[in-house]
Amino acid sequence: MPASKILMITGDFTEDYETMVPFQTLLACGYTVDAVCPGKKAGDTVATAIHDFEGDQTYSEKRGHNFALNATFDSMRAEDYDALVIPGGRAPEYLRLNADVIKSVRHFFDAGKPVAAICHGAQLLAAAGVLKGRTCSAYPACRPEVELAGGIYADISISEAVTDGNLVTAPAWPAHPSWLRQFMAVLDAAALLETNAA
């Protein structure tokens, strides 16, 4: 029954699990997901990084897989999508410098569409100026960015997620079950609202 068309904005050294798991899970649940990266086209790949929690003061980083994009950033229009997914990893750090990415992220908030961000994805949300007054989880090292952007940092377990209206966020990939379950609930609620309004 899901008819939602979802945009995933990703980039080189995106976190492996935070890109591949939501992409494949949402496809398996019947959603359409277009994964794009600025400067790349459908069929190109982005390099991924695997972030593990191994008892050090921060995550470790290892080279992951090559993730194949299935849509082209330059030809996509945010208006054509019902929801947005922002994986974490290293990609948000440089994607937030791209004015077209920022404009796309703002569109989803201006339109009240569902948005899911995980881990360092909050860096894109902060740069887009969409966190003022919003509760947002992220990797703990991103807490200052969330708070400096006017957001309320959700200090939750690494396996939990939080929903604030149309925004679903989580600290890192161990939260996937909770994060994806909450995001799909928001997607279903948005689809129901749209159906009732039609």
From TrEMBL:
Naturally occurring in which organism (per UniProt): Rhizobium aouanii
Family that this chain belongs to: Belongs to the peptidase C56 family.
Domain DJ-1/PfpI residues, every copy: 5-184
SUPFAM superfamilies for the chain: Class I glutamine amidotransferase-like (SSF52317)
The name this protein goes by in its record: DJ-1/PfpI family protein
